Amino acid sequence: MKHLAITAVIAGMLAWSAGAQTPAPASTPSAPPAPRTADGHPDLSGVWWQGQDIGGRPAGGAAAGRGGAGRGGGRGAAPRTFSSLYQPSAQAKAKTLSDKDDPSLDCTPTAFGTLNVSLFDVGAVGQIVQTPKFVIMLTETYNGFQIIPIDGRPHRDSVPPSNRGDAVGRWDGDTLVVDKNNFTDTSWISAEGRVSFHSDALHVVERYHRVDANTLEIDATLDDPKVLTGPWIVPKQTLRLAPFDQIMELACSAGDVKALIEGAAAQPSSGKN
Fold it and tell me: Residue ranges of the domains in the chain?
């Protein structure tokens, strides 16, 4: 399928960067509890992934991707997609679009994330840096970031809409709840062969829970009353602490990489998901 070809381009970029990572301590079979900050909240800091760079979890649970033994093919059942909830008018609009219309081909970030993880955007690795006032989410691909205040302030009314939305966070016990609004309508929810436009009414709520030192669980719900028939409950995502402690710079450009991605997107497709 076309999105596999696009994925392969990004996967090659990520594989190229593998040797430059600084190894972090390896995970132990019995993980210690989640670390905490001085104010007592769980510390979400770290580099997080699903076990390999692109394509989800490796087959058989074996290590894969950068620094691992290979790229497993175990993807499991396809999760429900944002576009499966399109209203009839949105379904009609989707039929006029194809992969070549994907805004990420012009280096536009997604509003959520291709692997159903906003931290990843169109990649599969992200880093969280936590301070007393902010949780900062850094995305490896496209050099993306989002700064999330956690000191009780409200959403900003004075900033223009953006691709990633305006985010504020609060603690619900040991879970960080992140609320995002004020999106543009020019990005897509995901990319790489998934036609998934949204409106400026998009509202995202994410819940981050660090289960232990090596595991981060994320629940998310997306509402878009102008586009969807109801809320999209995103399948729970379980991330692992990566065996390296710093992400790379994988910038998007209008050069050779973009040309390769556009070439893949221009090929005939077997259909949209």
Answer: 11-265
Please state, in angstroms and rounded to a whole number, the distance separating the CA atoms of residues 152 and 175: 15
Give the Cβ contact number of residue 168 at 10 Å: 18
Give the residue from 250, 249, 245, 216 showing the smallest Cα distance to 67.
245
> What would the pLDDT profile of 137-190 be if each residue is shown by its tens digit?
999 988 899 999 999 999 999 999 999 999 999 999 999 999 999 999 999 999
Alpha carbons 13 and 178: distance in angstroms, whole number: 30
Cα–Cα dist 55/33, whole Å: 28
Q: Which residues pair with 212 in a beta bridge?
A: 215
Contacts of 224 (CB under 8 A, 6+ apart): 198, 199, 201, 202, 203
Residues 271, 217: Cα–Cα separation, whole Å: 31
Amino acid residing at 5: A
Q: Which conformational region is residue 225 in: left (phi greater than 0), alpha (psi within -120 to 50 degrees), or beta?
A: alpha
